[in-house]
Amino acid sequence: MDRSRQAILDRAFDAGRRNERSNGGCPQCTLAAVFEALGIENEDVFRAATGFADGVGLTGDGHCGALSGGVMAISYLFGRDKKDFGDMMKLLPASVLSKQLRDRFVAEHGACRCADLQKSFFGRFFDLYDPAEMQAAFAAGMLDRCSTVVATTARITTEIILDARQNAGNDPGSPI
């Protein structure tokens, strides 16, 4: 792997860990890390990631917010434009890459649903709307564990994006 590519991937990982530890909100932390590593700024997409935290609305009942943030980054770069709304084939590039991310995420962490990840990591699920539960989650190491999930997801997402860009450059007929 060339040095510049490795530096970009390391930047995504480090930013993801830093973001989650200092700011919270796993989808925004992942998205911000990917965008930082790739030199992208988009406040609207960043803001749109807010409600995906902790499996949607801090409920744990949805896939991990870090995964949501990664999918949002992929969709931002490879997603279907409004002008192509009637063309279902235009869903494929972002969908194929998002599936790659989901599959690698599950291989890395064992599940993609937030509540399942919490049970796997901590032996239980935490209701983050309950202040005592929030305190218990932090005491159990949720911040450290989630910052690692965000960091690895940001790195994997960035790697998928870099590969897709490289493959598109090598194959002009590629849908990506």
Keywords:
176 residues, mainly alpha, 68% helix, 0% strand, globular, disordered C terminus
Question: What do you see in this structure?
Answer:
By secondary structure, this protein is mainly α. It has one domain. The chain has helices spanning 3-23, 26-38, 43-48, 65-78, 92-109, 114-122, 131-140, 142-170.
Q: Can you give me a brief rundown of this structure?
A:
The protein has 176 residues and is mainly α. The chain has helices at 3-23, 26-38, 43-48, 65-78, 92-109, 114-122, 131-140, 142-170.
- Please mark out the parts with pLDDT under 50 across 5 or more consecutive residues, or reply none: 171-176
Task: Give the CA-based shape.
Answer: globular
Largest sheet: none
Helix percent band: 55-70%
Derived structural class = mainly alpha
Mean pLDDT: 93
* Straight-line distance between termini: 22 Å
Query: How many separate domains make up the residues?
Result: 1
Helices and strands in order:
Layout: H1 3-23, H2 26-38, H3 43-48, H4 65-78, H5 92-109, H6 114-122, H7 131-140, H8 142-170
Helix pairs in contact: 1-2, 1-8, 2-4, 2-8, 4-5, 4-8, 5-8
